Amino acid sequence: EPEVTQTPSHQVTQMGQEVILRCVPISNHLYFYWYRQILGQKVEFLVSFYNNEISEKSEIFDDQFSVERPDGSNFTLKIRSTKLEDSAMYFCASSDPGTSSTDTQYFGPGTRLTVL
Amino acid sequence: GIQVEQSPPDLILQEGANSTLRCNFSDSVNNLQWFHQNPWGQLINLFYIPSGTKQNGRLSATTVATERYSLLYISSSQTTDSGVYFCAVAGGGSNYKLTFGKGTLLTVNP
Asked: Mean pLDDT, to the nearest integer, of B90-110?
């Protein structure tokens, strides 16, 4: 069964450094998402991406965040200057509401980001 | 935005018991998903169920969209069912953004 993959599984970085989290969505999906979960809290929406542009973003997704689909398979989240409060599990998801009978969002296994 | 409330926040069961988890939401939805977060933090899709009833083995779910709630039933619980169960919805003018509840922490003891 196709699945969303994410790399790395765990990233440790120093405050102020840039990080890039990578995701490979399910191949025929058209919508892509990033969510995050701070330890012990609920999952929060960051951004959705369709047709090579952001379709919706949350208040969390400020200027230090950016997303890109650099090629036909990868979807990336960049955090320009990490802060301690960026430490969280970051989930990528994808969906194909256009042709599928469902709007199911399929989630990857997550990247645990630790900012020191 | 749309609000999602899950109950109970915590639930402790003995193996073999049945349970019902509830999700209330504040607006009409076009997507409702139930997830199980395992001890490794992975979000496992259980159901896509914006309306109606579905069953998958020992799990079943029902969403009554007109009354804005969904129920997840777990029968004959096993220790491997332990973890956090999240309800997530999209709606209220935002078609694809999933808003998650705070989850129900289920502990199944042997």
From this structure: 90
3-state secondary structure of A74: coil
B45 touches chain A (CB under 8 A): yes
Cα dihedral B69→B108→B9→B68 (10° resolution)? 0
> What integer pLDDT is reported at residue A55 of this predicted model?
92
Closest residue in chain B to residue A112, using alpha carbons only: B41
Place of tokens 């169920």: B49
Separation of alpha carbons A110 and A92, rounded Å: 7
Residue A96, Cβ neighbours under 10 Å: how many?
A: 18
pLDDT tens figures, B3-49: 999 999 999 999 999 999 999 999 999 899 999 998 889 999 999 99
On whether the CB atoms of residues B1 and B91 are closer than 8 A, the answer is no
Q: Could you tell me the two tokens for A20?
A: 């890039």
Picking from B35, B45, B96, the nearest residue to A31 by CB comes out as B96
